[in-house]
Amino acid sequence: MAKSAEVKLAIFGRAGVGKSALVVRFLTKRFIWEYDPT
């Protein structure tokens, strides 16, 4: 069985541009339309 590689990823950007929404989309395959900006 193949080993999984550990990946570290940093997301940079200005406030309110959708960094958290992008991460949620990548991890869950869903997009949250009513996202409260942090």
UniProtKB/TrEMBL annotation:
Q: What is the protein name stated in its UniProt record?
A: small monomeric GTPase
Q: Which PANTHER family match?
A: RAS-LIKE FAMILY MEMBER 11
Q: What is the lineage of its organism?
A: Eukaryota, Metazoa, Chordata, Craniata, Vertebrata
Q: What Enzyme Commission number(s) apply to this enzyme?
A: 3.6.5.2
In its keyword annotation, does this UniProt entry include S-adenosyl-L-methionine? no
Molecular function (GO) terms for this protein are: G protein activity; GTP binding
The domain of life for this entry's organism is Eukaryota
Q: Does the keyword Magnesium apply?
A: no
Q: Which family does it belong to?
A: Belongs to the small GTPase superfamily. Ras family.
- SUPFAM superfamilies the record matches: P-loop containing nucleoside triphosphate hydrolases
> Which gene is annotated as encoding this protein in its UniProt record?
RERG
State the UniProt keywords alphabetically: GTP-binding, Hydrolase, Nucleotide-binding
Q: Which reaction does it catalyse?
A: GTP + H2O = GDP + phosphate + H(+)
